[in-house]
Amino acid sequence: MLLTSLRAEGFGRAKWTDSEGRKTGSSLAQVRPAMKIRPSRSGFTLLEIMVVVAIIGIVTSMAAVTATQIGARNATQNAASDLSSLLQGARARAEQRGSDVYVIIYPRWDKTAATTTTGGRGAVFVYEDGNGDFLTSTGVCNGSGTLDCGFANFSPAAFTPRTGSTDRFVQAIYLDDYPKKNARFGKDTTAFAPPFTAIGTAADTNGCSFCGAIRGAVVFTGEQQLRFLDQTGLPVAQRVAGIAVQGVDNASNSFLFGLVGATGLVTLVK
Q1: For position 122, what pLDDT does the model report?
Q2: Rounded CA separation 193/72 (Å)
Q3: CA-based nearest residue to 93, from 218, 220, 226
Q4: Residue 19 class from Cβ within 10 Å (0-12 exposed, 13-18 middle, 19+ buried)?
Q5: What span, in angstroms and rounded, lies between the C-alpha atoms of 27 and 4?
Q6: Are 128 and 101 in contact (CB under 8 A)?
Q7: DSSP H helices in the chain
Q8: 252: which residues sit within 8 A by CB, 6+ positions away?
Q9: Rounded distance, CA 208 to CA 206, Å?
Q10: Neighbouring-strand partners of residue 254
Q11: What is the dihedral of CA 79, 219, 200, 209, to 10 degrees?
């Protein structure tokens, strides 16, 4: 039998008919009325993009300000941590190499202007005296001449080791380098328990109980003892000495290191 037409009955199933109009069966497909399809919307409007960009800019600015504030608050703590590592490293170097290692402190060194007494947050330098003549030598410290650099002529702004010398300029820390320059040598007036009471008071002004107006030095000897020198290189009669750093915007945020001459001990008092 020849199937000749497909007729839809209302909204039901389609019916197949033959050439004489007789029904022959149902189709397997549903016949549904045509539906109007709306085109899909994609992308963003210019206004939406501008709003998103503005929000990103605000969030980024807030994050940058917060990071800067956190960095400034942590500057003193980071400086104290670095100073502790420097002191412990100088002590270990003196023990391992059997030579005197000088930690020279300039409480008001200005890294930018290279001045020693005003304007800066301070700096500390590590110098290994391989020949044992740093205090007595009169040599210049620019690499020329036949004599080793002498303490009296030492300047971190213009130091060059002499060829053939076993002296070494080991390390430097500039407190001007910390975020917002928020760390300096100095401490608040908080009193400490003995034996650190005296050094706490002495370190109030420039953060160094044995330094003069310009500088001072701690000498770690190969025998694991400490000596303290004033700015001219003369011994300072302190069995216990102190070095302190504090925050510029918060003077009470300070860290004091106690140094014991007889044992070479370096300890954080606060």
Answers
A1: 93
A2: 30
A3: 220
A4: exposed
A5: 13
A6: yes
A7: 46-97, 197-202
A8: 188, 190, 246
A9: 6
A10: 246
A11: -100
Q: What was the pLDDT predicted at 25?
A: 54
In the chain, what is the straight-line distance between the N-terminal and C-terminal CA atoms, in Å? Answer: 107
The pTM of the full predicted model, rounded to 2 decimals, is: 0.73
Strands 123-129 and 100-106: antiparallel
Phi, psi of 15 (to 5 degrees): -115, 135
Nearest to 169 by CA among 114, 109, 123: 123
pLDDT < 50 stretches in the chain: 1-12, 14, 27-31, 66-67
In the chain, domain spans: 63-268
Burial class of 214 by CB neighbour count within 10 A (0 to 12, 13 to 18, 19+): middle
**Measured distance CA(200)–CA(190) in Å, rounded:** 8
The closest of 16, 215, 176 to 8, measured between CA atoms, is 16
Q: What is the pLDDT of residues 13-33, one digit of tens each?
A: 545 555 555 555 554 444 455
